């Protein structure tokens, strides 16, 4: 029995039911469309083609029997089968199906887009461009530019640039100004006067903003986004209530350099600028978009305090992550000692961010399916789709994709320009990096031709010996100090000593005081100035010597917030100066503390180290890695929201053990904030969302081997993970 007879039998059978032949065939086509879609999601492309083809056969039969099937179903069958053909590499068949879909609906955006994909793979770039242009004319949506602006990116003979989108255009008005047409006539932040009729040549270096709706109709100045702080949380208003009411800058001790926003408009603009979705230069002059690749690479390096480099993708994607570059001895392989891979075949672009810790972000290849937006799952608890996801997994990846789209720069050119930038920085300014020091560990900090030297010598010594008036450095193995007492050489038992030319005496420098927003400058402790001993019971945040003040300022200005970074630099310099004598310091103890890489090089010595993306730490052995991921600090980091999307700022208390509404809610709850129950339906709903969020984070951490498989103790988070 052929298919037509089979359909006739089934239709005759359904005549005795409540379904009409049209409803029956329509439902049958719909089911096959759903089955094909499911097969496609499971990467079973051949089966998907069969399902879509069977659905089309039913449509053909229905047409022969003059039974109408919705055209939307027919269009979807053609487009979906074209998508499956494209995934199988049969792009010519995909083009044919797209043409059939366009015959059904000549304004089918999906068909035009899929046809463009297939034509691009066939090398027919002009035809692909025409398809995407037609798609733009139909959709009239700004977001459609994502598809066509990426389309010809891989064609080196073509270049497509797209305008930068303003996500605030629907709610905010913007206007460029200068100090002449928007002068200040007082000391307050609201004493500026707009003079739109002034005849002058405007420098267009001040951004004005106002809401399109609401009571605020006057133009308000929006300061440049703070770039001198590594703060990654949501922007908030300046806490000085008097400042907000009066607008008097004198009430804010930081003045114009305050990293808090002076108004809600600054919060709106700064938030979008940090995401990379708004470009201030385009708001100043939309016709003068800068597409210079060197300019854009340099701007990214300055904004995110890091460097582009190539890593081995096989090692980076392993679980746990291994950071390996091109091997110094054999440039054809990566530096993974246990499982070296062919480097050129597996290299991927990455960005190394150097803040309080050193962290890496892989930047996947930009292709036609990429969506220039952040993946919501990636910024929350980690995207389970990983490389198959078409959304950006980090802000730096999103900005790099935008740069590639707007300039056509290749990944090789990005790394090349990054290296040039840091070579120039080493020549013109002091930098705490192995190549930036001119001398050994006991020589002045700074170096480089033309660099402004800090003019301090430094060394690390044993803290136990220092308390007894002795200065002893570590032995070659970095296990013990060189004194007779043989104190253990650990992070807690060493101190940083510096010496200035004016004083022939070593002075201890304490770690940089932790602060959410670092001060503009450090001051000397008044008790020290009076030549007395500081009697402050806690950690005094004032410098106890001129040398400490200078070094703290230097560390703050160079984003060196952790003493571990200074130690790594000192150790690197010590090795450089002792290698000629064959007495280099070596880390032979497998349980020794972890060290982070401070600056990349083009090549690396053969090594194997595990990298924790949460803490930015390296472990040189499996045992050291297990110790790290079992530590309380690491487990707290797994559940923290540090550096996550700003929408994760919770509004209510930390969840209690009872996920129920408080029974005493009708009256005043005597336990207050310590109550184990939720105090409102909204708080209970947030508790449930927070529990689900933490469970997802834990599942992702286990998958990435950032948590031991048998680990069940998570401290205060234990009850959240129980059923």
In short:
Helices cover 38% and strands 9% of the residues. It contains 24 helices and 13 strands.
Question: Any overview of this molecule?
Answer:
InterPro entries: TPR-like_helical_dom_sf, TPR_rpt, ZC3H7A/B, Znf_C2H2_jaz, Znf_C2H2_sf, Znf_CCCH, Znf_CCCH_sf. It is a single chain. With 723 residues, this protein is mainly alpha-helical. 38% of the residues lie in helices and 9% in strands. The protein has 24 helices and 13 strands. Strands 1-2-3 form a three-stranded antiparallel beta sheet. The protein starts with a helix and ends in a 20-residue tail after the last helix.
Q: Low-confidence runs (pLDDT<50, min 5 residues)?
A: 14-19, 140-164, 286-290, 430-452, 578-602, 642-648
Overall mean pLDDT: 75
**What class would the helix/strand composition place it in?**
mainly alpha
Strand content: 5-15%
Spatial arrangement of strands, main beta sheet: 1-2-3
Number of strands: 13
Tell me the Rg in angstroms.
Answer: 31 Å
**Termini gap:** 55 Å
**Helicity level:** 25-40%
Total number of helices: 24
Main sheet makeup: 3 strands, antiparallel
Tally the structural domains: 5
Shape: globular
